[in-house]
Fold this protein.
Amino acid sequence: MKNCVLLLVLQGPLLGALFLGFPLFSSYALLQGHPLRRVLAMAWSSIWKVRLLFIVFMLIGMHTGAWRASGTSAYLVLLFPEMIRPSCFLLLAFLANCAVSFLLGSFFATAATMGVVSMNIGLNLGVPPLFTGGAILSGVYFGDRMSPVSTSAMLVGVLTGTDIYRSIRSMACSAFAPFLLACAAYFLRGLRESAGAGAPAADSLRGFAALYSFSPWLLLPALSILGCSLLRVPIRWNMALSIALAALLALFEQGMPARELARSLILGYRSPPPELSGLADGGGLVSMLKVAAIVCLSSFYAGIFEATGLLDGLKAKFESLAARRGRAPAVAAAGLFSSLIACNQTFAIVLTHQICSRFGLSREKLALALEDSAVILSPLVPWSIACAAVLDATGSAAGAVFFAVYLYLIPLWNLWRSRGL
């Protein structure tokens, strides 16, 4: 885990850090007397437990590519700036990023689209970028935490053996008060910034009109996600339907050649005008390969830790904390600890789950505890990819972390609510 921090400090790639840890932890297992075959079996066993995630990852990549090719993502982004006024900009920026992140299920895709637009509009209105960055960071992780197409929500569901739709219902209940408090905080802060000047539109959005043909039909893929979620359609079929609708819109509404559509689904959408590449490009099956590799390596680490007892001392300390202070504070502390050292959200989730698996929580309570700790605390760690990726995509300063109100309120509220757990 130290190698992750070291490579990030040296600006090295996260995957490189994780791959570096592979031989190190394998060597530790071999030195403990485990044969090579046993070490490989540890890795395969842990990866096999999350095998269904890789199918979902493929669908998510195709889903984001199809939405970009069809113009659905761009249409969602364009709907919000028309409603933004200076006095309520921060509130609407938060809500807009919440809505888009819930539909896309990706913090980075939301940050690269609605997040960029929000920052540009905020600059035009004279709103300090630290406040705008905080609202964006809060909003993009609203959906990353509880979207039916979120990779983090799916990972938590696989680790805990819980149904994603039941978990979303629990997360919605636990987030209701923090959400309202965050809305109030951004509204009150926005009232103080209402004196700024500027037009509520970003220049970078005007080129979208030349790139796409817009109509309400482009909302169909988003409405299908919501409708299928309400009907609790299995997530794979839910996403497959949305992909099919977006593909049809790309072919017939946007006039995209079938060959280009296939390329967008696999390699990601690429905007013909290069000036719109920062907003429009992305997605595709290959965009999920890095996430899949991180999950593979994180699962391998979990298998090694479990088989060798490497974390037994650490687990004992957190179990002692749970006995003295309660299980909810212990899970929150484990999530914060994991987020500080893991450098990425996926590894933080896996590590927190392993540390807290013997706390005696039910599967549903453990899933909610993971969502309220590792998932939501990783974006508050400046050296974590979960934080750095959003700040870099939107051009926000690191200080924006202090204004991500919603991310602080979720764990604090649920610690108070779970007293005695």
